[in-house]
Records
---
Amino acid sequence: MQRTLSIIKPDAVKKNVIGEILSRFEKNGLKIVAMKYLHLSKDDAARFYIVHKDRPFYGELTDFMSSGPVVVSVLEGEDAVAKNRKLMGATNPKEAEKGTIRADFADSIDANAVHGSDSLENAKIEIDFFFNKLEIK
Ligand code: ADP
Ligand code: MG
């Protein structure tokens, strides 16, 4: 059993597809074990994406992630990190496999509908960023 962090990004929240995306997790054996709806500040987004601070798109990314509300959830299941990444599809929706979340709901490489932890180690760091001991055991 693993846990991973998912974020439904501002573009997908605006498109009214929170339910459709959460449903894909549930239909594929991932259980939602913690969840919140919130609007990140630019500083929150900058801290969350600090690993990308030297990438040329860091400013754009943090502007976008703070442009509207997001839905953050913790998904639990067998091989949850890789399973979620597979359901998400490639970072660039133009390269995302048919039937993936990004192929179906994302418009561009920056507005790409979802975030998912890329390793078990980062999943733990990202879950701790958003959820305290009262919110997830
Ligand atoms: P992923 O979200 O698939 O793990 P990365 O960790 O490489 O992808 O990048 C984090 C986020 O930064 C991406 O989801 C996307 O929103 C944004 N991003 C990545 N590459 C670019 C790019 N070349 N131009 C603009 N935004 C980008
Ligand atoms: Mg990543």
Note: The first helix runs from residue 10 to 14.
---
Amino acid sequence: MKIVIINGPNLNLLGTREPGIYGNKTFEQYFKDLESEFSQIEFDYFQSNIEGELIDRIQKEGFSCDGILLNAAAYTHTSVGIGDAIKSIDTPVIEIHISNTFSRENFRHKSYITPVAKGIIVGFGLDSYRLGVESFLKS
Ligand code: DQA
């Protein structure tokens, strides 16, 4: 099984960015933990601050891997293009958020990903990604 994790803008700053909301761990550290916990899975990880690069990556991975865990970060709330990209591929996408977006500002309650995602995992800290992996393993 191959699972690709795609992270959007500002998630490269995890570990130092608003630690009260997003925690103290870098994604690179967390990614290593995931790889050792699920050694039977082939993982790939991509992060970009650029909307078009995220769409390119969704298109590139979306016909070959078994699942995509997508945290589109701020683009979740604005990007018709990322929503359309998810509709255009074969691979199921799970929408991931570290924080509980529904307990935050109103503009974070709208998602262009949710209607086209297989499901959403929101608000469990970095553990949201692990729960997404578990879900793909069981489906
Ligand atoms: C986020 C929530 C978004 O609203 C925010 O813009 C992010 C991170 C999360 O994982 O909690 O950058 O996607």
Note: The chain is about 35% helix and 20% strand.
